[in-house]
Every structure is written in structure tokens, then in C-alpha cells.
């Protein structure tokens, strides 16, 4: 699948810091030390509806990870998937009486436009579940050959007991796992499973549903977790730097994915850091396609809202916080954007050298975007109140805000 065009990332004087980031698996900060090419996998959308502010906030967090790495003069190998076949997509297509593939294509196209408008850096590999099927089938076959998978009425399940490290991403107890499994696409109550939370690797073809050739598995379609594992292993290999997504993916998705990969390769762990963004709510509840309490990026753009203001609204919240989208959040971001734009269009100002370092420090310390915004605010206020004589400073600020925060002033 093609991704979306990259906006330019201006080079800044000096050098950025190594990223210290909160790792869900260890429960604490880790300082990542990627090689010359940092490797990151971020879970992509299930394209049955438009990009909402929750999605945008999560992709914003991982865009910052990339920008910090680029500022350390590393290259970034970024991979993202599109879950373009799964139950929610088929359910929505049926509800709206549209073709599931056309729905997926339309919403993926809109996602690309939203990501472009928000200046999110594109993945190097943007891979759909459907196009990944030829790579998924041999992995499921291998898990079966290893004794880590079993069949139930034609469907193939992964046995969580086969991974000695199972549970080391989420650290949840069995009851919590069972509850979340039921909420998030699992089937803990299906009779005949070895463990209630065992996830499906391959679903045998169902009447009236799309299916693909699965070799010795028979016709069917892939499970959700093995999809991301196949794509990550194919394009990044084991031991990549960051596995990312929203906190609703900690369990079962990232726990199961880690287990699949560890059993398949005999290596541990799949990712050096499991990084999770907080949930964005609307009217007190997590914004979600299934609940329908959504603010869409594309709807705001249609209303004429500047994407730079949307991005500043996201950046005003720490990526790990759960927060609420309100009109005021957007209004504050628009006000801030107007101040910043006015400031960088003035012919001079106070020196911005220290500001660049402050933004770098803030982001390197667990992506503290609100602290970075506060540092820019201070420079703007100083310029407004006292002026300055450094003719290069407004340009430095503009380039730093673009390169490190993805906001074009
Ligand atoms: N296709 C799978 C991942 S492989 C999936 O979860 N798709 S999704 O469309 O439901 O979500 C895409 C990304 O947005 C995921 O990382 C998810 O954790 C994140 N996300 C979904 N809702 C919210 C929300 N309300 N706030 C923050 N992030 C969210
Ligand atoms: Zn995923």
C-alpha cells in the first residue's frame, strides 16, 4: 500500500538528545539507544470510519518519537499497518450496505489526507492486512508445527501457555485479561479453548464473508495480532526499538503480538520499548468508533480549522495522559498559533539558541510536548514584551517548531 507524502524536516544546528521513554513492559523509563537506523512499528487504523482526535493524538505521539530520533541524525525505519480486514469493518459494511473493500479503501484514503494535513511523517512501509496474508500463513503454520497453536472447529488458536514470557507486557492477572479479551475482539467464552484468552490466529472461512487461500490452514482470514507480528517481523525483524499504539492496545493486542513473535523466533523481547498513548475522550467517554462520540480531523478541516491548530491542540497534552477534547482545547490552540505566527513573522527577537535546547530536552524526556510548548510560549512573550535584536531568531524558532513539533508556522 502507498503511504502519504512526507513534509520536509528542517535540519537544526547542534544535535538532539537520546530519547528516554516510558516502557509499559518494565513500567519505567528506558533510554533507547537505537543504531544508526531506529526501528519503530506503530499499529495503524481499522479503516471503517474517519480519523478522530484520539487516533490523531496517538499518531502525534509516535511522530514525535521519530522527530527526536531524526534530530539525533539517525534514520528512522517506520512501519505501520492497516487492518483492512476484521470483524468491525465487515459489520460496518453490512450496516451501511457497502462493499467492505471499498469502505476500507475510502477511509484509508481519508486517513492519508488527514495525516498529510497534520504533517505526520509517513511510514516507510504501509502495509494492509490483506496484502500481508501470504506472509501470515507460514507463521501460523510454524506456530502449529511448534505445538503453540491448536484447532477448534477449523479455526486456529494460539496457546498463550506456549510463551514463558506471556503477561510481561501488560502484567495483568487472569481475571483482568479475560475481561479485556471479551471487550477487545477476543472470545473468552467459546467452549473448547485451552485458555479463555487464547486468541485466534486464523479464522476458517464463514458463509458470506471474504476469505483467502491459507495453504494447509484452509481458506479463511487472519487474526488481528498475528497480522501486526507478520508485518513487523517482515519489515523490521525482532528486537526493534518501539512498538507503539494507544493504551487500549496493551492487552490483548500487544501482549499477544509479543507472545506470537517470541514463540516464533525464540527471541525475547520483540520490542525494546512498548509505548502507549493515553485515551482521548469526548463528553466523558473514550472517543471510539463503536460508541460514535467522535470529533473527526476531516470534519474540522472542512470547517476551515487550520491543521496546525489541531496539531497544537494535541501537543498541549502529554501523550501518556488521558484527556478530554473540548471546543476550548481547540480555541486555546488557535490563540497560541496566532501568537506564534505573529512572533516568527517579526524581523527579530531574543536569541532562540536556548529555546531549541529546551524543546530538545523536553521531548527527550518522555516526549513532554506541553513543556516544549511552554518554552516556546516564554520566548514569544519575551519577544512581545521586550523585543530583541537577533535577526536570525524568528527563523530558528520557526524551523525548530517545524522540525521537532511538526507545526508549520
Ligand atoms: N487496527 C488496530 C491496530 S492494529 C486498531 O486498533 N485500529 S483503531 O482504528 O481502532 O485504532 C488506531 C489507533 O488509534 C490505535 O493505536 C488505538 O490505540 C488508537 N486509538 C483509538 N481510539 C483512541 C482514543 N480515543 N484515544 C487515543 N488513541 C486512540
Ligand atoms: Zn496492531
What would you say this structure looks like, in words?
This protein has 409 residues and is of the alpha/beta class. The chain folds into two domains: 20-297, Rossmann fold; 309-317 and 326-405, Anticodon-binding domain of a subclass of class I aminoacyl-tRNA synthetases (Four Helix Bundle (Hemerythrin (Met), subunit A), Up-down Bundle), CATH 1.20.120. 44% of the residues lie in helices and 15% in strands. It contains 13 helices and 14 strands. The strands form four sheets. Strands 5-4-3-10-11 form a five-stranded parallel beta sheet, with helices on both faces. β10, α7 (250-265) and β11 (271-277) form a beta-alpha-beta unit. The two termini are 31 Å apart. The mean pLDDT is 97. The chain binds 5'-O-(N-(L-cysteinyl)-sulfamoyl)adenosine (5CA) and zinc ion. Residues 43-46, 54-55, 57-58, 81, 83, 228, 245-246, 248-249, 277, 279-280, 286-288 line the site of 5'-O-(N-(L-cysteinyl)-sulfamoyl)adenosine.
Topology:
Elements: E1 20-23, E2 28-31, E3 37-42, H1 53-71, E4 75-82, H2 87-96, H3 100-117, E5 125-128, H4 129-145, E6 149-152, E7 155-158, H5 174-183, E8 200-204, E9 220-222, H6 224-235, E10 240-246, H7 250-265, E11 271-277, E12 280-282, E13 285-286, H8 297-302, H9 307-315, E14 323-324, H10 327-344, H11 353-364, H12 369-386, H13 393-405
Parallel strand pairs: 3-4, 3-10, 4-5, 10-11, 12-14
Antiparallel strand pairs: 1-2, 6-7, 7-8, 8-9, 12-13
Helix pairs in contact: 4-6, 6-7, 9-10, 10-12, 11-12, 11-13
The structure holds 5'-O-(N-(L-cysteinyl)-sulfamoyl)adenosine and zinc ion (ZN).
Zinc ion binds next to loops.
Amino acid at each position: 500500500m502507498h503511504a502519504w507524502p512526507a513534509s520536509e524536516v528542517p535540519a537544526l544546528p547542534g544535535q538532539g538528545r537520546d530519547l528516554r521513554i516510558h516502557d509499559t513492559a518494565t513500567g519505567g523509563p528506558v533510554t533507547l539507544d537505537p543504531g544508526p537506523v531506529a526501528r519503530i512499528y506503530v499499529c495503524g487504523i481499522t479503516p471503517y470510519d474517519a480519523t478522530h482526535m484520539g487516533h490523531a493524538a496517538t499518531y502525534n505521539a509516535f511522530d514525535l518519537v521519530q522527530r527526536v530520533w531524526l534530530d539525533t541524525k539517525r534514520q528512522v525505519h517506520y512501519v505501520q499497518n492497516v487492518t483492512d480486514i476484521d470483524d468491525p469493518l465487515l459489520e460496518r459494511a453490512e450496516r451501511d450496505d457497502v462493499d467492505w473493500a471499498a469502505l476500507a479503501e475510502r477511509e484509508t484514503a481519508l486517513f492519508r489526507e488527514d495525516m498529510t494535513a497534520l504533517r505526520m511523517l509517513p511510514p516507510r512501509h504501509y502495509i494492509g492486512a490483506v496484502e500481508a496474508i501470504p506472509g501470515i500463513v507460514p507463521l501460523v503454520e510454524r506456530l502449529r508445527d511448534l505445538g503453540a497453536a491448536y484447532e477448534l472447529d477449523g479455526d486456529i488458536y494460539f496457546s498463550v501457555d506456549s510463551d514463558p514470557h506471556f503477561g510481561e507486557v501488560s502484567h495483568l492477572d487472569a481475571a483482568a485479561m479475560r475481561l479485556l479479551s471479551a471487550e477487545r475482539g477476543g472470545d473468552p467464552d467459546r467452549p473448547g479453548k485451552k485458555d479463555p484468552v487464547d486468541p485466534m490466529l486464523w479464522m476458517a472461512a464463514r458463509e458470506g464473508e471474504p476469505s483467502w487461500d491459507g495453504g494447509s490452514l484452509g481458506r479463511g482470514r487472519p487474526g488481528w495480532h498475528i497480522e501486526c507480528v507478520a508485518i513487523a517481523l517482515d519489515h523490521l525483524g525482532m528486537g526493534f526499538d518501539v512498538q507503539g499504539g494507544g493504551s487500549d492496545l496493551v492487552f490483548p493486542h500487544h501482549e499477544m503480538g509479543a507472545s506470537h513473535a517470541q514463540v516464533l523466533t525464540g527471541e525475547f523481547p520483540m520490542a525494546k520499548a512498548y509505548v502507549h498513548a493515553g485515551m482521548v475522550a469526548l463528553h466523558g467517554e473514550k472517543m471510539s468508533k463503536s460508541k460514535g462520540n467522535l470529533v473527526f480531523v476531516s470534519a474540522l478541516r472542512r470547517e476551515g480549522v487550520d491543521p496546525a491548530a489541531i496539531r497544537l491542540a494535541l501537543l498541549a497534552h502529554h501523550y501518556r495522559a488521558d484527556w478530554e477534547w473540548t471546543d476550548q482545547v481547540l480555541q486555546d490552540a488557535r490563540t497560541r498559533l496566532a501568537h506564534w505566527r505573529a512572533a516568527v513573522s517579526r524581523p527579530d527577537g531574543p536569541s532562540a539558541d536556548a529555546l531549541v535546547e529546551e524543546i530538545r530536552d523536553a521531548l527527550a524526556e518522555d516526549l513532554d510536548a506541553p513543556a516544549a510548548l511552554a518554552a516556546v510560549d516564554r520566548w514569544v512573550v519575551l519577544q512581545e514584551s521586550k523585543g530583541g535584536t537577533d535577526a536570525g531568531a524568528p527563523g530558528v524558532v520557526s524551523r525548530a517548531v517545524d522540525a521537532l513539533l511538526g507545526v508549520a508556522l
